[in-house]
Design a protein that fits this description.
Layout: H1 2-19, E1 27-33, E2 36-49, H2 61-70, E3 77-89, E4 92-96, H3 108-114, E5 124-126, H4 132-135, E6 151-155, H5 156-162, H6 169-175, E7 179-182, E8 187-189, E9 192-196, E10 205-211, E11 214-218, H7 228-231, H8 243-260, E12 263-265, E13 274-280, E14 283-288
Amino acid sequence: MIKKLLVSVLFAASYSAFALADNAGAAFKTFPLGKLELTALHDKDNALPNDGKVIGINVGEKAVAEVLSAAGAPTDSIKLSVDALLVKDGSKVILLDTGLGPNVQGQLVESLAKAGYKPEQVTDVLITHVHGDHVGGLLTADGKQAFPHATVQISAPDWAWLQTLPKMKALAEAIQPQVKTFKPGDQVLPGITSVPLPGHTPGHVGYQIVSGKQRLLDIGDSAHSAIVSLTKPEWAIAYDNDRQEGIANRKALLAKLAADRELIFAPHFPFPGVGHIVAKGDHYVFQPTE
């Protein structure tokens, strides 16, 4: 019971932190993947204070500042983006995650409009996990379904967990008629398979998208900061339900991605968050695609 309460408090705190962030405005970036058309959608920018309470909680702000400084970044905050990914596959318009939502100044719908789409055109929504910066956009400002014609797919463990969170009760009730659950590892749509990425939430997943010989992995929240998470993947993050499992997942995933050079989409890396993980000495760096 105490662990569940602690996770709920951290979840609420993380949601509030995004609400305080400055917004860089709506934006989109479209690129091909085989026969598919993919579009990165910007929702919001965020800057977490470097206070040792979120990223690097097992080492403290001084150690985090040293990593940021070495990368030429400001040392008083950790810059994150909040982004989503759209997949156009024939008549299917598939959205991976939904951002924060309009009540905390998320601009996903505006970015969607700039890319030439309306919420009513979205046929499927795939959720990596049920933190507020990934599911908040499932609702309009007045609490209605933001994507009324879409099936919303959420892993069974995360859907069960979401319904236990008091602050998410209204959202869970509103989207319940749309929700379809799956087991992590299941294929959720033709060409899209969920990938178990444990530690962050009970059913946290990524999504591997394949078209012909090309593929891309949405890594969800396996890594948050393109600087700190890649330089020190062994450092804990407060948002992970199971911090040791989160560390193990991050280390294994980064090693695999660096080895096979798979294209990734990272929702919290600098927009548009598309590129490759590259090994550099004893750590990793993010190499954005042009």
